[in-house]
Amino acid sequence: MTTQITVRIPDDLVAFVDALVAAGAVTSRADAVARALARERRRQTALEDVAILRRVGGDADLDALAEHAAAHPLDLGD
Predict the structure, then answer these.
(1) Which of 9, 30, 54, 55 is most exposed by smallest CB count within 10 Å?
(2) Are 53 and 65 in contact (CB under 8 A)?
């Protein structure tokens, strides 16, 4: 199921999305926005996982991963 929404996006981002569509990287503007939001959801989930690992501890390899991820936050150009 999908829901149609209306959003305002800066012109430079619209041009970027349109270039993605023209290049065939995505099938439509909606596809580009959906992919970006799905990526952000995965990023947020990963950050939550890191916070849990830091709080409860665990396997030494995961501790190192959590420390690394916490020290290197992802910047997607928000």
Answers:
(1) 55
(2) yes
Query: Using N-to-C axis directions, what is the helix angle for 60-71 and 29-56, rounded to 10°?
Result: 120
Asked whether the beta carbons of 21 and 29 are under 8 A apart, the reply is yes
Q: How far is CA 6 from CA 3, 46, 60, in A?
A: 10, 28, 46
The pLDDT assigned to 67 comes to 78
CA 42/CA 36 separation, integer angstroms = 10
Q: Is the confidence at residue 78, as pLDDT, over 50?
A: no
Instruction: Look at the block and give the residue holding tokens 């992919």.
Output: 35
Asked if 37 and 31 touch (Cβ cutoff 8 Å), the reply is: no
